[in-house]
Amino acid sequence: MERYLGIDEAGRGSVLGPLVVGGFLVPADRIDTLSDLGATDSKALSPARREKVYAALATVGRRCSVALPPRAIDRVVPHGGLNGLEAEAFARLVRELAPDRVRVDACDVNADRFGRLVRRLAGGRIPVVARHHADRDDVLVGAASIVAKVRRDRAIAALGHRLRTEIGSGYPSDPRTIAFLRARCGRGGRMPSFVRGSWATMKRVKRAAPGPTLDTFEP
Q: Is 149 found in the same domain as 207?
């Protein structure tokens, strides 16, 4: 029985925490059962529903992921290398799990090019089909998107717990995240390892942060 691997990512646009590449490996004859379990694009599900489907996926296949930390992302973003970094993470899952076929959600504007890159980085032997909106249109990739999103959300929750403060979702559109960044990384503040310093968001945060006043200094 052939085994199929779906791959997707979560957290690409976040300014906090890791980018998580999630994979779901399943025998070909179990793919049709994924819809019954509720697998679909993770963005279409509530957090509670994602957790429930995530648990159910373990009964029919294997969940796996690769987490890319902010510093790894910061090293490649100035050179336009984020797609390549993601492709290597996708390929790592392919190499480790050795499926017969792979279906992925393409992060490149050229989906076929992204699929060819993942296949080459994985060794060139295993067929890789890359499509835009595959998390929405392909139940296998939808399952992978749930794995990526749940593990990414858990990483953000763990970070907030460790810092003992509200950090929000980690995305620039979240006012809670921006408030946290202004307090923690404002003008003159050190860039923590969990922040993507290469993001334009951080440049805006530092520009907007108030400078020191006379009240700041002791006589």
A: no
